[in-house]
Specification:
The protein is mainly alpha-helical. The protein has one domain (27-95). It has five helices and two strands. It has helices spanning 3-25, 28-33, 40-49, 58-66, 82-95; strands spanning 70-72, 78-80. A hairpin with a 5-residue loop joins β1 and β2 (78-80). The protein starts with a helix and ends with a helix.
């Protein structure tokens, strides 16, 4: 094996071990609730289900938009982004344990 190939293999192993270490410390519940207040995720559920697309207060909308979980359509209605839907899915999985 040449020196360059050995270097690339070593870097790959180092990155893989670093990623594994990060995954072992990752707390999904903390990631979901970070920067949000009580009731924000319930409102996100209403928006994501289409039950109440205008069901966010101004402060809830600001917090959820800052996290990238909702997007405003311009007419006062909100839609859940992929990140918001992923947060709800992770929340469901974590709570089912």
């Amino acid at each position: 094996m040449s020196g360059v190939a050995f270097f690339y293999v070593g870097c790959g192993i180092g990155i893989a071990l670093g990623g594994f270490g990060w995954l072992m410390k990752f707390d999904p519940s903390r990631w979901i609730a970070e920067g949000l207040k009580r009731g924000d995720l319930y409102s996100l559920i209403d928006v994501a289900s289409g039950l109440r697309p205008d069901g966010l207060t101004q402060s809830q909308a600001e917090r959820l938009q800052a996290r990238g979980m909702v997007h405003c359509n311009g007419n006062g209605h909100y839609r859940a982004t992929l990140k918001g839907r992923l947060a709800l899915l992770i929340r469901t999985v974590v709570r089912s344990r």
